[in-house]
Amino acid sequence: MSKTPSRRRVRAWLATILICAQAHPAWSQILVRAPGAARTDFRATHAIHPELRRLTVDAPDTDASLDIAKEKLNRALERAQIAFLSGTLEEARAGFADVAKLATTADWARAQRRAIHHAILRTAQMASGEAPERRAALAKAVAFDPEAKADPAKFPPPLLAELESVRRESDERAVLLKIRERFDGYETLIVNGRAYKVADTGVLKLRPGDYRIHLRSDVYAPVAEVMSAAKLFIYTAPRRPIAVGTCGRPGLNEPALAALEITVVYSRDCLQRYRSGQWTRLAGDEGGPARSDPWTTSPSIPTSLEIPESPLEPKPVYRKGWFWGGIAGIAAVAIALSAKRTGSPSEAEIRPSSAEGF
Question: How many helices (H) and strands (E) does the chain have?
């Protein structure tokens, strides 16, 4: 299988990024890691430049593109529900089928997954009476969201019993996907809207059905694909770096990215920023808010040191503290005795000369 992504897939990813950059200006500033750059250097850079977006944390689907998909889903759900309550059986079946088709079009959040799961079960309920068609719809519901539970108040008991039968059958036919081995180098794998940390996840149970996967990385271009469980089981990720070259000769892997502003971490001492067709090398803390540099400062390291004088060189008498302290004491005693001899009145003997003051 080819390890380079299709041009169609790359263009789709770039289109998503560009749409998000137009709708959300902050999305025009992205921080990526060059192949070979240390993760610690990258994280320190992001701590200094929190205004820059990371593809693994602030994915495009959390912004404009997902907002558009949610609106489309809401309209489809509204049409299906109206048809179910007041339309014909054919209209209701077609309406919920349209909702089911949206299952793998976005990385849905939990609320949207539950709504789509409900719509898929409706298509099974309104199947034309053929058991294979009904069981296929139930299998699709199980694969799409295995943890979703059908509401017994909204579906007939025979359908719920058949759903559990299909669930057991799907579990028996499931395969185990080794996530760490298959997707090493990526930070996050999203399957039908559910996110998994690649480094922390061992295996994932794949039941028969279709899956939308979304791979995210600070190094590689994001990948979004829809495929069957059998294809996903043998799938090899493309691992196409976003940035290429070296600190002295930086480069981007895709000319279409010229519309964005991208900061590339090549090392802790070398950041290259691409803007309007030009590369500019930045210092480690240049362009970020005023803050301590985690590379060069530490609360345990003093910023200045007092160097003591050598104990081998004796001080002159006039530079020693006790010498001047003694002189000050003698002077104070002499002043007090002088004042007593001149007969100056003490504070207790002073009397006001008038009612208005001294």
Answer: 10, 13
Kindly give the interhelix angle for 89-100 and 64-86, rounded to the nearest 10 degrees: 160
Match 């003694």 to its residue by tokens: 326
pLDDT at 49: 86
Residue 256's pLDDT is 61
Q: Report how far Cα 254 is from the mean position of its chain's Cα atoms.
A: 23
Evaluate the CA torsion angle 60, 61, 67, 68 in order and state its sign.
positive
Confidence grade of residue 131 (pLDDT, cut at 50, 70, 90): confident
Distance CA 349, CA 345 (A): 6
User: In this predicted model, what pLDDT tens digit does every residue of 77-102 receive, in sequence order?
Assistant: 999 999 999 999 999 999 999 999 99
The pLDDT assigned to 93 comes to 94
According to DSSP, the residues that pair with 205 across neighbouring strands are 176
Reduced 3-state DSSP string for 198-256: HHHCCEEEECCCEEEEEEECCCECCEEEEEEHHHHHCCCCCCCECEEECCCCEEECCHH
Cα–Cα distances (Å) from 102 to 66, 108, 261, 354, in that order, read 12, 10, 32, 100
Is 13's pLDDT higher than 90? Answer: no
